[in-house]
Amino acid sequence: MVDKIKVEDLSCYYGKKCVLESLNISVVQNEILSIIGPSNSGKTTFLRTLNRMSDLDSIYSRRGDVYLDSASVFDMDMEELRKRIGMLFAMPISFPMSIYENIVYAPKRLGLIFKKSEQDALVEQSLKDAFLWNEVKDRLKSSAMKMSGGQQQRLCIARILAINPEVILFDEPCSGLDPISTARVEESMVELKRKYTIVLVTNNVKQASRVSDRTAFFLMGKIIEIDTTDKLFVSPKKKQTEDYITGRFG
Ligand SMILES: Nc1ncnc2c1ncn2[C@@H]1O[C@H](COP(=O)(O)OP(=O)(O)O)[C@@H](O)[C@H]1O
Ligand SMILES: [Mg+2]
Known about the structure:
alpha/beta, Rossmann fold, 36% helix, globular, binds adenosine-5'-diphosphate, binds magnesium ion
């Protein structure tokens, strides 16, 4: 087992308020690590710290370190970091352009592809990997905004895959989706871990139990428990974990 990401003694603050306290956690290469926990536990702050999305927020600060392979992300060139760690948010945000253009937009801007034939191949491969190709292959030039919510979320996955990252961060990717769309997104996540390392923040404990290899339970800025998903759900060691996963929380 190789650690893809290693978080060492990480604390995060908004102003003086500490929202993540001395976290130590690793993400193993090609695993899906789920993070569960009630609102305001620091889950989003954690994800946004991994690819430095919060760096521009003036009241945000942190100490500790995060390594991607063996290099600190805080020393890394921002553009390189964003290429290596992609992030998907709760609400799919398709650009108001065609399905095709949604996918080639970032790779073109980053100078990763030039030729039309390369673009075509990238669009096809990314859509296939996101389990969307069959549904849209005949209307690549039509607007992405006309797709269903579930399709748009998979389009956003395809868009991330098109820049060929190493790690993908999902922040409650299915919170606005119906069960069928959710199942499709889960299917693609399970498939994606062959090539990528995935951190999935989910407000749906059943989703964590369905798709992830390991699960971490966050509560008020601390990791209460982390274990293989089977163990955490079948025999949690902490009462707080048990209360949360059985819905008795609060
Ligand atoms: N940009 C921000 N500015 C100030 N406080 C924030 C900001 N983002 C989150 N917080 C606070 O940090 C804590 C953790 O939030 P968050 O990381 O969003 O948790 P979660 O994703 O688990 O709901 C909460 O108390 C929240 O109010
Ligand atoms: Mg959140």
